Amino acid sequence: MSSLSNRSAVDPFHAMDVLAQANRRKAQGRPVLSLAVGQPVALAPRLAMAAAQAALVSGPIGYTDALGRADLRQAVAGLYATRYGAGIDPGRVVITTGSSAGFNLAFLTLFDAGDAVAIARPGYPAYRNILKALGLVVLEVPVGPESGYTLSPENLEREARAAGVRLKGVLLASPANPTGTVTGRAQLQKLAGWCDDNGIAFISDEIYHGLTYGADEASAAEFAPKAVIINSFSKYYRMTGWRIGWMILPEHMVRPVECLAQSLYISAPELSQIAALAALDAGEELEIYRQACRENRDLLARRLPQIGLPLLSPMDGAFYAYVDVSQYTNDSMDFARRMLAETDIAATPGLDFDPLEGHRAMRFSYAGTLAEMQEALSRLENWLS
């Protein structure tokens, strides 16, 4: 049997492992509450489902251009004009098979093996795993209260100097997973400008845009024409399983990304593209969902510290609560397993997001219903006490 490549030796995505365990317990009839993955419990917008149903009847559904359907690219560009006041040429929009494909295409286009790319710690584990699989050097920059839980020129310079690397890229998520941090407009603009001044590629992950709760939500599209922006229909638009997202690229990257996408993905699923186009018009329904998330967020922000799970970061956006479990355990993986076994609540161990300090943290997703959050809090309070 042939040996595996070094590129395949990446850490597991623990949230998905926990989800698999939770699904097995559900299949056994257990009353599982899954707060492990960032998946909205609400269905895709009604307009999206109706458009997909109509397309299935009228057919055919086939390949599209690798860059995506022209009508969807035009509509995404229009979204930036309406929401952010940013004039985006539809020719710079690329429709992708979820944001995951967007990250793959961005990394392959921008970086060579051995290049150093900075991400925040704690941060989304797939960044680290994909970068490592591509042979890139990952610089994990610790973020906390002193930096506003986000990346800055100061902490990037400090960590790059300490590691002895020259950065080729910076990837920032706002709102961030798992911290819920929203990087404000001024700070985001400062970071994008610093990257531009130093010849560093800047990738702005904006997949939780729309799910903010009073924070200063800004897109790099407003002021950083050289930035690569990645977004998705999975979160705010509630279309995780449809696997559909998009990128905004500098003009010089469009053709190289197109060539890669032709071979790696052919095109994003056309049925999902049709549904996504309709979802862009579902503003009222989407706002109802955002308000539901806000109600969940307000409940957890108040109750989690009361039951002994203090927050480790703000909950200004996305749908996650990142909490300190150090008074109960020094092993968040074991804590997650015991919690699932003894309370039927699935949540994600902090080691997914922070290999160094995540042993004392857990992430709870509040993308579900208010009733689920109330039941989870009741079970947790009884268990912890």
Short description:
The chain is of the alpha/beta class and 385 residues long.
Describe the structure.
It is a single chain. With 385 residues, this protein is an alpha/beta fold. 42% of the residues lie in helices and 14% in strands. The chain has helices at residues 14-27, 46-58, 70-84, 98-110, 125-133, 153-163, 185-197, 251-264, 270-279, 283-306, 332-343, 370-384; strands spanning 33-34, 93-96, 116-121, 137-142, 167-173, 201-205, 228-232, 245-248, 320-324, 345-346, 348-349, 361-365. Strand 3 (116-121), helix 5 and strand 4 form a beta-alpha-beta unit.
Q: What's the number of helices?
A: 12
Number of strands: 12
Sheet of most strands:
7 strands, mixed
Bin the helical content: 40-55%
Distance between the termini: 51 Å
Write the layout of secondary structure elements.
Layout: H1 14-27, E1 33-34, H2 46-58, H3 70-84, E2 93-96, H4 98-110, E3 116-121, H5 125-133, E4 137-142, H6 153-163, E5 167-173, H7 185-197, E6 201-205, E7 228-232, E8 245-248, H8 251-264, H9 270-279, H10 283-306, E9 320-324, H11 332-343, E10 345-346, E11 348-349, E12 361-365, H12 370-384
Parallel strand pairs: 1-10, 3-4, 3-5, 5-6, 6-7
Antiparallel strand pairs: 2-8, 7-8, 9-12, 11-12
Helix pairs in contact: 2-9, 3-9, 4-8, 10-12
